[in-house]
Amino acid sequence: MAFMIAAYLVIWLAVFVFVFSMLRRERGLESEIAALKEVAGEKPTG
Amino acid sequence: MGRSHVGLWILTAVACVAMLIATWMALVGAPSAAGLTVDETYAQRIIYFHVPCAWLSMLAFFVTLVGSVGYLITSKSKWDNLAVSSAELGIVFTVAATASGAIWAKPAWNVWWTWDPRLTTYTVLFLLYVGYFMLRSAMDDPARRARFAAVYGIFAFLSVPITFMSIRWWRTIHPVLLDAENFGLSAGMRPAFFFGIIAFTLLYVTLLAHRVRLEGLREEVDDLKESLAY
Q: What ipTM did this prediction achieve?
């Protein structure tokens, strides 16, 4: 039974690690976009 | 929240429910295999998740091929985004399939790993797609990176049919499920097997949609940086 549990855990773990890494990258990019938009708003045009 | 955003979250919810049902069917719903030792009987249930992972790794690399060809024809970044997103998922499912296969191999073959043609070609396939990301990370110019990665993605795909056919071309101890009558499964096992493949495919589509969206955000950052002359 240990083999079966280990295999299912490994697969779920691989999926969760990928999902969490995606969420982390998404959060990082969104905060970067917000910061860049703020800078763009402050930057004088012309 | 846009319509596509709502659609993505509905798809995510459906994929999660499908995966929970697939897990229940694989662990509880499907009957136990007959004529095996106790360890082998439990380990046999690994195929309900191992086969979908292996199938998705190959599907993901096929989508990378499609994205690569699409980019070379159109030079539009959306194709490159699709290719890189799918390649990343392909790596994840290759790792999941390899690890679950090794765990199944211990009670079935009495070893965690052997240089069987399927395992060897699958390892080469994995390393080729690791190389795909190493190539991408070595280039800063987005257009040049996308062009080189597209050419590499097309050639790397050659390893997918070789891996798929390896158990038919060479002597192997790896089971050949697709060629066996009824996939070598009893009538009670087949619903869990096919539902697993459907649920995992749905999971792949969902994760791919999220990953492509992430590439869109990365592009937005690059555009903003360019407009600010960073």
A: 0.83
